[in-house]
Amino acid sequence: MSRLLEAEDLHLSFRGVKALAGVSFTVSEGDLFAVIGPNGAGKTSLLNVLSGLYKPSRGKVVFLGEELVGQSPQDRVRKGLGRTFQNLELFRGMTVLDNVKLGAELAVGAYTDLLPHAPTEWRIRRWAEEVLDYLHLSPYRHAPAGALPYGLQKRVEVARALAGRPKLLLLDEPMAGLSLEEKQDLARFLLDARREWGVTLLLVEHDLKAVLELSTCVLVMSYGEVLYQGAPSGVREDPRVAEAYLGRSA
Ligand SMILES: Nc1ncnc2c1ncn2[C@@H]1O[C@H](COP(=O)(O)OP(=O)(O)OP(=O)(O)O)[C@@H](O)[C@H]1O
């Protein structure tokens, strides 16, 4: 599998607190790459560095062979690096469809097969409708996003990000606050999107059971450092992980 993203020796500090202390790893095309670790381990800081919200004091982020440090979050999205947030970042007063159309606008060159001769606005709408349908959100498309139950809002956020046709989608705790059934639904949608649209997924997640079941590769962080990168089957056996994250008895 070819390399999609490489993080090389990333460092980031907040007034003396080392959020990232030399983080390196590789995400390959097709991965479902999970980042786990205790509270304060640096997971969200890492996503913020990858998506361009924070600039690392040292290190490189290489995406599809191109160095990204210094490029804006918007440029990164246009290059295929999508993102969802830990706290929902939807436009609550806008309809579900309009939220997803915002995502689709970013990728208008990427779905040339849909209505190739139609005006751009039609093609954006058509693609947004397709993504909504795919995620079983069509019945809610005219509702204000902020009026939906939390689980559906999370799904709308994923739909908006997927509408941007990312090559790599960064998801910050997509399962947090969801019921078991909602988690299972979301996991299915993500796996389907990965298969159908070739989206590689990198997710920060606290639900260890979900991580170990779904992922192809796990990165375990603690105090801004990488403790483990490898197959999910090796996570529980790794002594450093057991000590730092799972508790010695795990
Ligand atoms: N904007 C900020 N200002 C100051 N300190 C910050 C900021 N963001 C993160 N930190 C600090 O950096 C460290 C890493 O935080 P980060 O939020 O990245 O961890 P995390 O693994 O995502 O934690 P959680 O699982 O609780 O979300 C913590 O010590 C945190 O207090």
TrEMBL record:
Pfam families: ABC_tran (PF00005). SMART domains: AAA. It comes from the Bacteria. InterPro entries: AAA+_ATPase, ABC_AA/LPS_Transport, ABC_transporter-like_ATP-bd, P-loop_NTPase. GO terms for cellular component: plasma membrane. Residues 5-248 form the ABC transporter domain. One of its GO terms (molecular function) is ATP binding. Keywords: ATP-binding, Nucleotide-binding, Transport. PROSITE patterns: ABC_TRANSPORTER_2. This is ABC transporter related protein.
